[in-house]
Amino acid sequence: MISSAAILHSGTAFKNTRTMERTLHSFVARRTWARKCCALLTVLVVLLVYVTLKDSSTVPFGLGTASHLLPPHRSSDRKELGRPGPTGSVQAVHHTDGSSKILLMTYGRSGSTFTSDVLRQDPKVFYTFEPLFSLIRRQLTTRSGIPPAFIQANQEALDTFNRDAVDLVEIFLSCAFESMNISDIHNFQLSNSEDSRLLYSCAQRSAKKPRSPAEIVDCFLQARRSCLSHPIKMVKTIRFRGTAARQILSRHDDLKVLYLIRDPRGTLSSQARVFGAFKWEGVGNYSADYCQVFREDLAIMGELLETYPDRVKILRYETLAASPLKVSEEVYTFLGLSFTSQVKAFIYNRTMAGHKPNHAYGTLRSNSTEAAYSWRSKISLQAAQAIDGNCKDIYEALGYVAVSTEAELKDTDHSLLKPVLFRGHQL
Question: What is the rounded distance in angstroms from the CA atom of residue 85 to the CA atom of residue 66?
Answer without folding.
Answer: 24
